[in-house]
Design brief:
Length: about 110
């Protein structure tokens, strides 16, 4: 097996990344701070693993206001984010992002 294939397989099997994915899926959408708090891993470790998961397409992110939210299901993420912010304080661009995410099928 080529070394690149072994590296790709190893990243998919990482227990910390599985834990991060599970946390994000359960929460619907989570900020880096929420993931750190829930997993009890260091900020740097979570930041690295989230970067890898996003690079591999297993996590997605959206910036709403001052926060970056990570998610796996756009519709669930939009619902969670909308329930945690004041819709009147959203910029038109942020509202459009959330409306687009909410329109995705589950």
């Amino acid at each position: 097996m080529p070394i690149i294939a072994r590296i790709k397989k190893a990243t998919a099997d990482d227990p910390i990344r599985r834990e991060i994915l599970k946390v994000v899926e359960q929460m619907g959408a989570a900020t880096l701070s929420q993931i750190v708090k829930t997993t009890r891993k260091s900020w740097g470790a979570v930041q690295w693993h989230v970067y890898v998961l996003e690079r591999e397409g297993r996590l997605k992110s959206v910036k709403i206001g001052l926060f970056i939210y990570y998610f796996t299901n756009p519709k669930a993420a939009a619902e969670v984010i909308l329930s945690s912010v004041d819709p009147n304080n959203l910029s038109p661009e942020d509202r459009e992002k959330l409306d687009l995410m909410a329109s995705f099928a589950s």
